[in-house]
Amino acid sequence: MKKAILIFLFLTFTIYVHATFTLSGSTITQTNTDTDLSGIIGIAGVTTVQVGVGTDREYIVYDIGNLQLVINGNLTIDASKEMLLIGISSPSNVISVNGTLNVQDQEIRNGFTSYQQRTAIRTSYNIVNCCGNFSIDVTNSGTLNMQGGGIESSSSIQFQTNSTINIQDGRIELLSTPDPEYQIRQFSNNLTAINFNLVKYAMTMVGTPIKFEGYKPTHAENGISFSSSSASTQYDFRDYSGGGRGNRLDLGLWASKKGKVINSSDGTNVIIERHKSGDISSQGTWQITKEIEPRIVDEDGVPLQNTKMFIRDNDNGNRVDGNGYTFSNDFTYFNTSNASGLIPITEVLTGAVNHFNGSIATVFDRRSKNDNTDDEFDIHFYHYNKVITRSIQKLKGVGVLNFDWTMFDDTNITESDPTIVAAYTTLDNLGQLYDYAKYWKQLNQTNLEIPSINELLIDTENSLLNLGDYNLIVDATAAAVFAIDTNTKTITIKSTTLLTSTKFIGIKTTASITLNNGATLEHGYIDNTGTNKFVHLKWNLGTTNDVKIVNQDDLSVISYTSPVNSVFKGHILVPNPVPTNGIEVQVNFLSYGPNLFKELIPEEDINFVRLDIDLIDVGTEINQMKMLQISERLLVKIEAINNAMNNSVTPTLTINQTVTNTFDDGTLQNQEAILVILKRLLSKVSAAREALKKD
């Protein structure tokens, strides 16, 4: 009785052990759950080899010969402990996954997971066929999970439409000599692959993955190509890492399908070519893009908000439109930093192949500044309070490109708060003009490129505002405080009187400066007429005088204004060539009288301002009239003395001198009259003296 019970228990245990793996003909079927391959021991034709027994590298090789394996349950193969070998003469679809196949080779230490890619499965079945006779077929009900580990195969592999594929740092490698017909036929719409390493195979992407990131094909026939059954919508792949890894082509063109690689490890250094050379179906579109996220800081490392970033790509002559894309236009990128100084993640097109003739070679439209695989782009940064700057970046590499960019203060700014500048209704001085032009430029993407992205609309040069080749209209009644006409290259500002400021003394342009509706400039300027110096004089005496400005080389008069009462403002056009002996400003008696003030204008000064002039003291007209009266009386007295000495009757004395009495200032005419009378008086006194000598 005891013996019978033991036999029963033994048989029961044996059935339990082998219940999940059963052999029928040449097919082993797995059911239920197996955490390793040990349950396959005892199946006819299965052999095992233990390697490195008693060492840290100990593992078991399970060789099922030329049998086929169908997985209906849940099977785990740990590549660190075991390997499954299948022979060359196995039936097609060597491993058919209807349930779940877990391949793993990972280790977790100190919270970090390390993945290795040791071989978990190796099949030798070899049929050169893209679309049938698979080494591994994950069916519509099947799931393949790879957490590390490797699968090595000699024939094509298929992931069916409704299969679920999860690959994290897994490797699938073709053992046969590469051929376009050896493919991973990827039909699954439930594929998630991260850091998937494919060796020698051609990846044919039919289904649309949930995620496909960090893919690294090596020696592949096609890193990624398409089928006529692929979706007509665009496929997006991130962090492609196949560039420069010996692939026949990285990204294949077929059946007008569309793909985009975001954050290629080698940028545009990838091979995009026809899936089959000379085949008319070898056409389609691939784009390479790069994501960037700069952080903008000031000199002290403090984040800068409201910094504008601008990129315009370069037309290197290889742009092709079609297949639903327009690549012929420049692509531009414009974003603004937040309070953390971060520019939102911006995706930049670095290259594209848009190909529609399978019989000719493709043309790669690289949009970088150097039209090569360095993928260098100019990235411009603009902030109201900072100096405009440019960063040159290589837009390649996996992941988002993060970098810090430092901007420095614009010391030409007068008003640091742009909201105050925005509220200006008129521009009263040159500082306000500079500030408003700086504010205006950063309002939108269009303004940023006026006159160009590298230049300010109004720059500075030796304390002058430099307008380049733009005209300036200063209009006292302009409709807007600041307006630009790019067709005529004209800046129009609203200003009644435009003054200098603490930082700027004048304006320079190669075009014209025009004043409308009573507007005035109280500073010098240089325009297409030449150098126009501003002269501002004020003398302390409240007198009326002439103001004359003279070329000291030939004494020609550049400007003459009369009469001027105490204050003079005006512009003079400097002769060409500039006078060697300078230009002299004179304040004179009226009617070309003598100089009361004169000074040479310094050649380097565009403004000549003298507001505390002490004129040479001059006589007043009243004093001159009194002097005339006294002189006349003296003349009469001496004449009477002479007549008394000569015992003659005193005659009537006639004085015929013309005098003036219409001005407050003394006049030359009065001075000449006084001199004549004094000469006559001297003559009479001399005569009287001679008469006294005779007596």
Describe, in plain words, how this protein is organized in 3D:
- This protein has 695 residues and is mainly beta.
- Helices cover 13% and strands 39% of the residues.
- The protein has six helices and 55 strands.
- The strands form ten sheets. The protein has an eleven-stranded mixed beta sheet, with no helix packed on it. Strands 4-5-8-13-16-19-22-25 form an eight-stranded mixed beta sheet, with no helix packed on it. A seven-stranded parallel beta sheet has the order 3-7-10-15-18-21-24, with no helix packed on it.
- Helix 5 (621-645) runs parallel beside helix 6 (668-694).
- Mean pLDDT is 91; it is low at 1-19.
Q: What is the structure about, briefly put?
A:
By secondary structure, the protein is mostly beta strands. Strands 1-2-6-9-14-17-20-23-26-28-30 form an eleven-stranded mixed sheet, with no helix packed on it. Strands 4-5-8-13-16-19-22-25 form an eight-stranded mixed sheet, with no helix packed on it.
Give the tags:
signal, mainly beta, disordered N terminus, 39% strand, eight-stranded mixed sheet, eleven-stranded mixed sheet, single chain, 695 residues
Q: Which regions are unreliable across 5 or more consecutive residues at pLDDT < 50?
A: 1-19
Largest sheet: 11 strands, mixed
Main-sheet strand order equals: 1-2-6-9-14-17-20-23-26-28-30
Q: Which strand-content bin applies to the residues?
A: 35-45%
Number of helices: 6
Describe the global form. Answer: rod-shaped
Taking all residues together, what is the mean pLDDT? 91
The portion of residues assigned to helices is 10-25%
User: Strand pairing plus helix content: what structural class?
Assistant: mainly beta
The rounded Rg comes to 49 Å
Number of strands: 55
Distance between the termini: 197 Å
Signal peptide: 1-19
Organism: Polaribacter ponticola
Protein name: FecR protein domain-containing protein
Keywords: Signal
